[in-house]
Design brief:
Layout lengths: L24 H6 L4 E19 L5 E6 L1 H7 E13 L2 E24 L2 E28 L3 E24 L7 E24 L5 E12 L3 E12 L3 E13 L6 E16 L1
Antiparallel strand pairs: 1-2, 1-3, 1-11, 3-4, 4-5, 5-6, 6-7, 7-8, 8-9, 9-10, 10-11
């Protein structure tokens, strides 16, 4: 899998996603010997770009807006879970989406004075799973800011199925149809940072941030996620902008992919 690297990677380290709740100050000290859990769900509606080369020789370029993603969405699930004890913890994030769309076209023309009609249908179905599993280590925990070191792996599984059919009004030219598919799984080691910067005396509002970079079966992958959030007694709500980029290796069927868009989520702490 390969893609030309986006230059916006300049200030990035390494879904999807939602940020883990990090205890602050006296809370972290008091709960140092207890497991703390967070469960989050969110909605991420990204624009999607990329290119794929199918075994049949056909190739497709994906450039889908966030609105088109909503129209093409068949099924999705997005969420994360974190378990923490003291400075150490485990964090996982998953994004699954099933998208499908089609395009029809027809044309009428004249051959030897006789009217001839032709029609074509092209359909593309994309199923993707982005799963991140990582350990976390708290580097800093103050009333104003928390920062975690993140280290682990990210998996990308993507299956694309291309269907086509051609038909004409001339009996001597029979209808033609076919299907081609590409299915691949990528594993990459990642390292990054995630945390929060709290605002105001009450520290209800905060700025969540997440950044990572990785490599392995991909040439390079990176992700950044930042925005604003608000804390409650039961957890928090966040609104961020998330960007995920893959630069795949030469010769892979999937030639490139990037996903970026608004994310809104809610997390429950227990």
């Amino acid at each position: 899998m390969r893609q030309r690297i986006n230059t916006r990677f300049a200030n990035c380290l390494l879904a999807i996603g939602l940020f883990g709740l990090v205890p602050v100050g006296a809370q972290a000290q008091a709960a140092n010997d207890k497991w703390q859990w967070e469960l989050g769900v969110y909605g991420w509606v990204p624009a999607i770009g990329g290119a794929t080369s199918f075994p049949s020789g056909a190739s497709t370029t994906i450039d889908v807006s966030a609105r088109d993603v909503i129209d093409a969405l068949k099924m999705t699930f997005m969420g994360q879970i974190e378990a923490r004890k003291g400075q150490w913890g485990v964090w996982s994030d998953v994004v699954y989406a099933d998208l499908g769309g089609s395009k029809d076209g027809s044309r009428d023309f004249t051959v030897g004075g006789h009217p001839v009609g032709s029609s074509a249908n092209l359909g593309l179905d994309v199923k993707s799973t982005v799963w991140t599993l990582a350990g976390i280590y708290n580097l800093s925990s103050t009333p104003e800011n928390t920062t975690d070191l993140l280290f682990g792996a990210r998996m990308l599984n993507m299956k694309q199925t291309l269907n086509w059919s051609l038909a004409g009004s001339v009996p001597e030219l029979p209808a033609r149809s076919g299907q081609a598919s590409v299915d691949g799984t990528n594993w990459d080691a990642i390292v990054g940072l995630k945390g929060r910067y709290y605002l105001g005396a009450e520290r209800k509002w905060f700025l969540p941030y997440y950044v990572d970079v990785g490599t392995g079966q991909s040439k390079l992958t990176w992700q950044i996620n930042a925005g604003v959030g608000y804390t409650f007694d039961w957890g928090s709500v966040v609104a961020t902008w998330r960007y995920l980029d893959y630069d795949f290796k030469s010769g892979d069927a999937l030639q490139g992919m990037n996903m970026n868009g608004a994310l809104i989520g809610v997390a429950f702490q227990f």
